[in-house]
Design goal:
The protein has no helices and 24 strands. With 294 residues, the chain is mostly beta strands. The termini are far apart. It has one domain (4-280): Neuraminidase, CATH 2.120.10.30. The strands form 6 sheets. The chain has a 4-stranded antiparallel sheet with strand order 1-24-23-22, with no helix packed on it. The protein has strands at 4-9, 16-22, 27-32, 37-42, 47-52, 57-62, 68-72, 75-79, 86-90, 99-106, 112-118, 128-133, 139-146, 149-154, 160-165, 172-179, 184-193, 200-206, 212-217, 221-225, 231-236, 242-248, 254-259, 276-280.
Length: 294
């Protein structure tokens, strides 16, 4: 089967991000950060429903208890899309004006990991952090500060954690050992320097073979990196700024890709920028994402 890239939601999202597949609902949840919208895409019907959040909203996951956990500009929330009810779970950066949450995902035990970044138009500054949110809603900060938190993903067995800094002067993905019982990372080490390729590291996921897939922001591509740090596949995209990848579909064999539509000089060359894409024919699938346990 040949690899095919299709725009399944041609919506011109300002900054599509946060793609997260729920194996129970068989739906892809994603966000438009700059528009302050949460989306739910149903591939069976092709329907893409949206929910207005009212501020930048960047990452999410489904909850065991129902609804979503959401990382936004003003903190982490629990949200019921059926009723619109929301409640603040935590705001660990209440004193950092201009910071917001960015990338996020769950580990295989249902802890929610999310990172932050400065996003107020000021010069870049290393004041983004990564946070682990446990089922009891305890929040813990990890790792040294970064410019732009990104690339969170876990190996299929949960023994390796990945994260990245998208900043153009860093462009690095790190790996570390991960104790799945305690949610503790250790042994941080460089995994891949994206100066070797065209795009910077953005949202990521891991496939069933343990390979790391990243959206190559600014590079017109999606890239697969094998566990020893070598690139073995590059998928060309019809948009310059893919932002997040996530496997989904009934067999987890479709790779969904969000993208950015704002601020592009060559709009005429990429009319589908900001769309949600589906890549098929990859001959590899993803791993189920655990719902947030809290």
């Amino acid at each position: 089967m040949a690899i095919a890239v299709e725009c399944v939601v041609d919506c011109r999202a300002r900054l599509g991000e946060g793609a997260w597949w729920d194996v129970v609902d068989q739906a892809l949840w994603w966000v438009d950060i700059k528009a302050g919208q949460i989306h739910r895409f149903d591939p069976e019907t092709g329907n893409d429903a949206d929910f207005d959040w009212g501020e930048p909203v960047a990452c999410l996951a489904r909850r065991d208890a129902g609804g979503l956990i959401v990382g936004a500009a003003s903190g982490v929330y629990l949200f019921d899309p059926d009723t619109g009810a929301r409640g603040l779970l935590a705001d660990p950066e209440a004193g950092l004006t201009g910071n917001r949450f960015n990338d996020g995902t769950t580990d295989p035990r249902g802890r929610f990991w999310a990172g932050t970044m400065r996003d107020d138009g000021s010069p870049p500054e290393r004041r983004g952090r990564f946070y682990r949110i446990d089922a009891d809603h305890d929040v813990t900060s990890w790792f040294d500060p970064v410019f732009t938190s990104n690339g969170l993903a876990f190996s299929p067995d949960g023994g390796v954690m990945y994260f990245a800094d998208t900043n153009r002067d860093v462009r690095t993905i790190w790996a570390c050992d991960y104790d799945l019982d305690t949610g503790t990372p250790s042994g941080q080490r460089p995994f891949f320097d994206t100066n070797q390729i065209a795009g910077r590291p953005d949202g990521a996921t891991v496939d069933a073979d343990g390979c790391y897939w990243m959206a190559g922001f600014g590079g017109w591509q999606v890239v697969r990196i094998v566990p020893d740090g070598r690139v073995d596949r590059i998928i060309e995209m019809p948009v310059e700024r893919p932002t997040k990848v996530m496997f989904g579909g009934t067999d987890l064999a479709t790779l969904y890709v969000t993208s950015m539509g704002d601020g592009l000089a060559g709009d005429a060359a990429q009319p589908q920028a900001g769309g949600l894409f589906a890549i098929t024919g990859l001959a590899v699938g993803g791993v189920p994402q655990a719902r947030f346990a809290g």
